[in-house]
Amino acid sequence: MNESIEQMIAEAEGILDRCADEKRNPTPAEQKRLDQIVGEDGRGGALAVAQKQKTQREILSRLSSGDLRASDGTYGRSEADFSGASASSPPAGRWRTPRGGSAEVLDLGTKLAPKSTNQHLFGEFVAAKVTGQSKGFGRDVQNFMGVSSNPSGGYTVPRDLLSEFVDLARSKSRLNEAGLRTILTDGAYVDIATVAEDPEFKVKSENDSFDDEEITLGQIASEVRTIGCVVTGSRELFEDSLNIGELITSVMARALAQQVDRFCIRGDGASFRGILGWAGLPEETGVGALDWEAVSKAAIKVMTANHDVGAAIMHPNGFGVLQSFLTGTDASTVQAWLPAPPLLSGVNLLDSSNMPIDQALIGDFSKAALVLRQEPLLEITNVAGDTFKRHQVAVKLTWRGQLVVLDGSAFCALRGITQ
User: Fold this and answer.
1) Which of 279, 278, 102 is nearest to 190 (CA)?
2) Is the pTM of this model over 0.70?
3) Contact at 8 Å (CB) between 221 and 206?
4) How does pLDDT run across 341-351, given as a tens digit for each residue?
């Protein structure tokens, strides 16, 4: 099978090279052969089938040798994860419904892509779509060039490219670092249940009956928003820059991470609620000058509700204040930096400019999730606005998503912080 895969790759590359050298599109016969090898959508061809079969055999071999473990019905991964994850990071989990719906769930330390081979693949795909040229990017990008346009305009980003991009964007998000989950669904099943009130277990004597107890479950109302960003550059930049793939990937991943953090922390200032605006969220009000005592009080509220305190996020000003306390009362005494109290020793303290300067948030961030309800849509134009006369290209990436807080009692907001 290895020889068959190599032969198919060589044949496809040969066709693309001839077309590039002769400055022409593939002939009908050549296009038919490319579709047979690569597939009309970049996935369904003979090459994908052969590679999948080869991968399956390798996975089964590794499982039988004990190199990988099956977990939650999926195969484990041994590749190193993105920032903050260990070499034994588990794969994405999965939620399912009795009706057959499912969604992939990414927790802290998990990733979507099975193996990181080219972190700039997304940017190279964008550049190839902008210029219509993919020869310089290698066969990974060439295999995706057959992706057809979406009926609503633009291109649906192929899943393999999406996985790398999502992992990179999550690695740049403060909320992901705190433990926020990312849930990817096709949009067919998007109802999310939440815990409004925990059940209470009782102890009874023989022949006594249990009191009726009812767990109160809520359902998230749909507050979907469009998340996206636009990158504009000259055509010369897209065509000639050696680092264009890295640049596009990095810029758009960082922009997405920033917007997700703002979106999920504070909402959009109108009808959408971020975690800070979630109804019934426990809080410490009138905090005043931020200190370790105020943060500890908020942590105790979370612990009293039977949740683990995983992280705290605050504005950089407040973060700086906490890191600036000294022991001793004046310069005549021996002074040292005052560390966090033991209660907060295991809490991940993070700063974010997306947090309002007068507020902070502490809790178990795995009790909240960003639900992305469609494949991302990539749109490219050289005629909108001033792009045509400026000889520019504008690239827009959009996604539909919403924030869900699965259990509000897992958080505590600190409000009324003064600097």
Assistant:
1) 102
2) no
3) no
4) 888 988 999 99
pLDDT digits (tens, 9 = 90+) for 192-229: 666 655 556 666 667 677 665 555 555 555 567 788 88
Least confident of 204-218, 299-313, 325-339, 386-400: 204-218
Please state the separation of Cα 147 from the chain's center in Å. Answer: 23
Exposure string for 174-212, b = 16+ CB within 10 A, e = fewer: bbbbbbbbbbbbeeebbebeebeeeeeeeeeeeeeeeee
What pLDDT digit, counting tens, does each position of 116-127 carry? 556 677 788 788
Domain boundaries, the chain: 98-198+215-419
329-338 long-range contacts, CB within 8 A, separation 24+: 338/292
Buried b (16+ CB within 10 A) or exposed e, 23-53: eeeeeeebeebbbbbbbeebbebebbebeee
Comparing 203-212, 368-377, 407-416, the range with the smallest average pLDDT is: 203-212
- Phi and psi, residue 416, nearest 5°: 80, 30
